[in-house]
């Protein structure tokens, strides 16, 4: 049984309120507006947060612009900026427990997984510290005639808009490359989960990041609110956004008048394809982890499992049995594998899909609220089998611990099913046939493929989706490209070859 009192004990260092952070100071909204932040276990408000509007974004962008124009951050040596980034990583690491406790309390993530995400956040800063020091740029020469080189410049004020799933880690994913390359930033964290972001100012100050380089405005995304105002601010030349595909479309349209640089990491409905020749134990473990880790609130979740007919019945039976053993528990319990979804609104959305699924397919595990969890956003790990491709639970992103399993009989059918969605973020392929694995990878419509592998990231590789899953790529040098302008400088080394115009 659960102990509700343990669940609602707030972290020891809870701030009095969530404020914006502008030009080195914590501030309230200019109009004083605030909103409630909810704990996902009790669904009770536990803290107030400032709700930013256009006027607050104007202030934050002005502070970031001043810090960019007055320096020293954009013109510091890469080595000096890298030192600050490495200090940020050290501090994040040293505060892992505190950070994870806050994240878990605010978002409902299982504490053990929240710790892993805090370590990933630190690693993002370390990685980009290394990358800017090792950074090389193109130079080309035509001997005796011309030399050309690339002058890379930070763009200015970067607008960063982030979602509520693994919030601190996904914020670090954007913050690290944006500041590493010499930009200043305005971060707009997700309104469901602003708590861990309230630690950034202290971390950055302690690491020696100059005042005004990092600014943060909390609040909502809609028109007139913080997110929308950031997208429409004329002094913000680029927006890096992670969130829903429909929000991405709105941002795309709103940024169009300024032709802003856009990077968008959007939704997914990623297939995990299991062929009969796969290592079945490994495939089952990985596909369980792939959709139930991080509460299933993960853009790259393998939420459609396609299984070859000859092993289908065995797979479904074993998968359902293992899903039933996934430990649902309080976010604060170190043994918990699936905890509470972020917010009652999201819980209702996920539960509505569970009900839709019951009318569309065969329920083989879960399908309700776990026993012993009468309040809060708890959902049993839920498995549907025999899901047809026209089912809504096959096509639509659920973003919770719910998976659809579908049989296929040929490679061609597997590929057609894998691609039969508007999304294209990740694909996972399980087979011992090398040729099949590589040919399938070529043909599958996804930004990333994992072959016989869990979702393990190498920070040097591009991260992003195709179709409705995104626009552009970040990760490694792609992030450096996104957050900088590349100016080509051409130098004449010989005679001037231009034809002469207008000569008498
Ligand atoms: N592809 C990826 O890398 C990736 C990663 C994480 C999450 N996601 C996706 O994110 C979604 C879940 O996150 P969410 O519910 O927070 O997404 P969301 O789109 O509702 O919100 C994301 C952020 O955008 C802001 N926002 C909302 N409307 C806006 C507008 N008109 N202008 C500017 N900002 C606006 C929100 O306040 C929030 O900070 C899922 O669809 C998931 O797949 C994708
Ligand atoms: O949830 C969105 C982004 C996730 C990135 C990952 O590497 C992951 O899937 O954990």
TrEMBL record:
Q: Which residues form the active site?
A: 265
| Keyword NAD part of the UniProt annotation | yes
Q: Which CDD domains match?
A: ALDH_F8_HMSADH
Which positions fall inside the Aldehyde dehydrogenase domain? 28-489
Question: What InterPro entries has UniProt attached to this entry?
Answer: Ald_DH/histidinol_DH, Ald_DH_C, Ald_DH_CS_CYS, Ald_DH_CS_GLU, Ald_DH_N, Aldehyde_DH_dom
Annotated keywords: NAD, Oxidoreductase
Say if the entry is tagged with keyword Transferase.
no
By sequence similarity, the record places it as follows: Belongs to the aldehyde dehydrogenase family.
The record's PANTHER family line, in alphabetical order, gives: 2-AMINOMUCONIC SEMIALDEHYDE DEHYDROGENASE (PTHR43720)
What protein does this entry describe? 5-carboxymethyl-2-hydroxymuconate semialdehyde dehydrogenase
- Gene name on record? hpaE
């Amino acid at each position: 049984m659960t102990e509700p009192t343990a669940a609602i004990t707030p972290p020891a260092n809870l701030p009095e309120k969530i404020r914006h952070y502008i030009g080195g100071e914590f501030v309230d909204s200019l109009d004083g507006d605030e909103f409630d932040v909810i704990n996902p276990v009790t669904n009770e408000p536990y803290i107030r947060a400032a709700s930013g509007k256009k006027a607050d974004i104007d202030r934050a962008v002005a502070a970031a612009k001043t810090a960019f124009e007055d320096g020293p951050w954009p013109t510091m040596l890469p080595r000096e900026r890298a030192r600050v980034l490495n200090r940020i990583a050290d501090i994040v690491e040293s505060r892992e427990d505190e950070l994870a406790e806050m994240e878990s309390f605010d978002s409902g993530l299982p504490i053990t997984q929240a710790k892993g995400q805090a370590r990933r956040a630190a690693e993002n800063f370390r990685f980009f510290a290394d990358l800017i020091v090792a950074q090389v740029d193109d130079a080309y020469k035509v001997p005796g005639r011309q030399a050309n080189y690339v002058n890379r410049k930070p763009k200015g004020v970067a607008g960063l808009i982030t979602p509520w799933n693994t919030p601190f880690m996904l914020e670090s994913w954007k913050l690290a490359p944006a500041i590493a390359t010499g930009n200043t930033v305005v971060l707009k964290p997700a309104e469901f989960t602003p708590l861990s972001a309230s630690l950034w100012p202290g971390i950055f100050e302690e690491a020696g990041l100059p005042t005004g380089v990092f600014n943060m405005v909390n609040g909502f995304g809609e028109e007139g609110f913080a997110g929308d105002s950031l997208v429409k601010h004329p002094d913000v030349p680029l927006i890096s956004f992670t969130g829903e595909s429909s929000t991405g479309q709105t941002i795309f349209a709103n940024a169009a008048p300024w032709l802003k640089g856009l990077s968008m990491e959007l939704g997914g409905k990623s297939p995990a394809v299991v062929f009969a020749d796969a290592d079945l134990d490994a495939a089952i473990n990985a596909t369980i982890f792939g959709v139930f880790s991080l509460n299933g609130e993960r853009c790259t979740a393998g939420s459609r499992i396609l299984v070859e007919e000859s092993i289908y019945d065995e797979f479904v039976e074993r998968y359902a049995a293992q899903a039933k053993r996934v430990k649902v528990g309080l976010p604060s319990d170190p043994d918990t594998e699936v905890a509470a979804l972020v917010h009652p609104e999201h819980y209702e959305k996920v539960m509505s899909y569970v009900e839709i699924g019951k009318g569309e397919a065969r329920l083989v595990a879960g399908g309700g609220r776990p026993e012993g969890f009468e309040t809060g956003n708890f959902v049993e790990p839920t498995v549907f089998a025999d899901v047809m491709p026209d089912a809504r639970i096959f096509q639509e992103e659920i973003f919770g611990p719910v998976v659809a399993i579908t049989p296929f009989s040929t490679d061609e059918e597997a590929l057609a099913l894998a691609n039969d969605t508007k999304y294209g973020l990740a694909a996972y392929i399980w087979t011992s046939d090398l040729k099949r694995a590589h040919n399938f990878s070529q043909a599958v419509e996804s930004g990333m493929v994992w072959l016989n592998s869990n979702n393990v990231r190498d920070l040097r590789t591009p991260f992003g989706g195709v179709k409705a899953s995104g626009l552009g790529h970040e990760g490694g040098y792609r992030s450096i490209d996104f957050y900088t302008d590349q100016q080509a400088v051409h130098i004449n080394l010989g005679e001037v070859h231009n034809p002469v115009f207008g000569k008498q």
